[in-house]
Amino acid sequence: MKIEKEFPDYTLLLEKVSRGDDFAFTQLYDIFANDLIRHIMSKIQDEEKAEDILHDLFLSLWKNRQNLINIQSLPSYLYSSCRYLILNNLRKELLKGKSISITDIDVINEEVSIEDRIHYRYVIDIVENEIENLPQKCREVFKLSRQNYLSNKEISNQLNISESTVEKHINKAIRLLRSSTKRFLLFF
Question: Which of 74, 80, 168, 178 is most buried (CB neighbours < 10 A)?
Answer without folding.
Answer: 74
